[in-house]
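pipeline/complex-builder :: batch 7 item 3
reading input block
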Amino acid sequence: MASIKYSRQRKAIKDFLMTRKDHPTAETVYLNVRETYPHISLGTVYRNLTLLSDMGEIQRLHFKDGLDHFDADIRSHSHFLCTECGSVLDIDYQSDDDLYLDERVNSGFDGRITGHITYFQGICPECCKTSV
Amino acid sequence: MASIKYSRQRKAIKDFLMTRKDHPTAETVYLNVRETYPHISLGTVYRNLTLLSDMGEIQRLHFKDGLDHFDADIRSHSHFLCTECGSVLDIDYQSDDDLYLDERVNSGFDGRITGHITYFQGICPECCKTSV
DNA sequence: AATAAAACAGTAACGATTACTGATTTTGAT
DNA sequence: ATCAAAATCAGTAATCGTTACTGTTTTATT
């Protein structure tokens, strides 16, 4: 049996991610976990983020900023990127359109479609307020 | 007036992109344009790809491989990424779902949604054939 | 043709991520 | 609880895509 040893550091990384809804980058994870484990290495953060996402415990996301973002919420959901402040928000919309989108699109496609992800962009609620 | 001088190199880059439907990376553009302009610099390729996309003449895309891909087709359309071979294909599906998606999702969202892009993934037609 | 601005080639620098190394921690069995 | 093997760690060096810099060449205009 492949024995995966769950270190304190890995747990701290996962725990931190679960407290955040804004999909932090590896750098942000590092800076925050370091408050609990001052000696944690940036390499450890990267390795564990990769490990956790390979195991399916977290999601790795790619935004336009070119950085990898991480999300402890592994349910399928969409994301919104604010073009003003760069913040990322979850978009939870339930619709049949989305549920059956893969099948519908697959009917006109020779390959096999197994999933999709939709990225929205615009101005976030916060920025809408400030920029009157 | 901002006088933009259209160099042979920039034209070659745009022309090459227009012949391709598979959204090449900067590296691929470089290797191909170099066959016509053996002394072209990789920096020139990057600078012009950025310039062209800033001018709206081409599209810059971000895929899961972490690389930037470029597309001379600036119409709004979706993309498909093959998880097997990594190739990228266009997905042209016209539907009211997609047309009015922004408005529908915006109705349950405090900010302003100005657009979205959907990435599909799965097995491409080619890989479906070979991996019987 | 002469000129100034823009673009170039070549190279160095940058930043995010990954790989390496020897020390430490975790796990499961004694 | 103790111990050894395997996994993980901290720290650092290396990698790789991309951007910035510098001095030269091309472009468009007079």
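note: The two ends of chain A are 59 Å apart (CA to CA).
queue -> next item
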